[in-house]
Design goal:
The chain is an alpha/beta fold and about 220 residues long. It is built from 7 helices and 13 strands.
């Protein structure tokens, strides 16, 4: 069994992210575990406070997975907060730092475990692209290695701000048959266990083999 996966284009926990109420309802709880690892060097406490205010307005509480370095992700008990979690939200920031901290750790296994047992996993901006096997490098539009949860697609976050030059490079370098998914800010591409849908203020654009497709062409995720 797998749960709900939300790939958010950025600007998480801001007006326009109307989908968060539905994700919270799908989780069946009133608690969200925030993973601010990617913002370790960008005043993560400010991001956490925004999350607290946002989810308080939706009737939920926020717990913080305070893992900002790899030693913390490997520390005994670091993943305990995930044992009974039903909704985990990975914020944006540095994708390279996020990957290096979480890869092959009990914390990452715990996050994946939430989804495997039917919970909700949301990743915003770099927190979305790092979930992919082929992670888009926002610095130039090429690819690097992600955390390998999603094969068959890759995410361009903040697509509404992405340059034509970087888009061309990303599409050109993408492996054959892989879907390149551009997601605007305050917009979510959501897998509900059966099908993909789009929610929020912007749009989602899918390219594969150099051509545009609809979200119905995206790979079906395993149950």
């Amino acid at each position: 069994m797998s749960g709900t996966l939300a790939l958010v284009g950025g600007a998480e926990w801001t007006e326009g992210c109307t989908f968060d109420a539905g994700l919270l309802e799908r989780s069946g709880g009133t608690r969200v575990v925030i993973v601010p690892t990617a913002s370790a060097y960008e005043q993560p406490h400010l991001l956490v406070e925004r999350a607290r205010r946002w989810f308080a307005s939706l009737g939920a509480e926020v717990d913080v997975l305070e893992v900002f370095g790899r030693s913390e992700a490997l520390a005994p008990g670091a993943a305990d907060i995930l044992d009974d979690a039903t909704f985990v939200y990975i914020s944006g920031g540095s994708p390279m730092h996020l990957r290096s901290v979480l890869k092959d750790t009990p914390v990452w296994d715990g996050i994946v475990g939430v989804w495997r047992r039917g919970g909700v996993i949301a990743g915003s901006a770099e927190g979305a692209t790092v979930l992919c096997t082929h992670m888009v490098d926002s610095r130039g539009g090429a690819f690097t290695v992600g955390l390998d949860l999603l094969d068959g697609l890759t995410v361009i976050p903040r697509y509404n701000l992405w340059s034509e030059d970087k888009l061309h490079r990303t599409i050109t370098l993408a492996p054959a048959q892989m879907a390149v998914v551009g997601i605007d800010e305050a917009t979510a591409l959501i897998w509900d266990g059966e099908a993909w849908s789009v929610s929020g203020t912007g749009s989602v654009t899918v390219h594969r083999n150099g051509h545009r497709f609809g979200i119905d062409e995206l790979p079906i995720l395993p149950h």
